[in-house]
Amino acid sequence: MGDKKNKKSTADILQESRHVLYGDEVEVATVLENVLTLLNRMDTRLVSIEKNTSKNTSTLTQMNDKLNSLTARVITVETDIVNVKSRVSDLETSSEGTGNLFEEVKSKTCSLEKDIEQLKRNNGDGNDSQSIKDELRKLESYNEKLKGKLLDMQCRSMKYNLIFTGLQEQRDENCEMKIRQFIHNEMKIQKPLEFGNIHRFGKSEPGKPRPIIARFLYYSDLDMVKKSRTKSKRYILRCKRAVSTRN
Fold it and tell me: Start-end ranges of CATH 3.30.70.1820 in the chain?
């Protein structure tokens, strides 16, 4: 009997309650039972609404957490980009300063070598003046010191550098693109590499391409190129401690 009443629709229960209240007979038990049934149904619906609300709140919380996590990652990436740009700028400034100093020392060395040769010629012509011999020794000693400083500076500046020689030189060329293509096509390295400054250096001579110096941002990239140069040894110059070697 109870199961049949529970299966009644809400409209049937309300209609039955009106008939009892406003009909010829008042059945209090029936009215109370109908009211109780309606209250139970309302309670069930309220519980269902609360569950759905809780689920929606949980979903919103998860979305907010994901958004916060994404925002944090974006901030981290932006910071990394700023740091990389700053490091590239510092490396380029350092590379340019070292290059200028390198050229200055090289110029002085060449000038001293010319002076030494001139003194040697004068001495060979029969001028045995002790002052010329002393000056010659001083110049030779100073020249050796300059060469040592030049080599030391070259080694220090090339810690993250490789010099590529023999690559055809063209007007208005893109040195970075040329090096990337060489590494990709000739050395078969597919990994994207990060560079600082890439440029040619030295004086131009007809029919002789100037070398290209490439500064790597990461030593691991430089080391990978060094280890992969089996077929390209003649193109790469690397400074090692006290001497620079060319394979």
Answer: 158-247
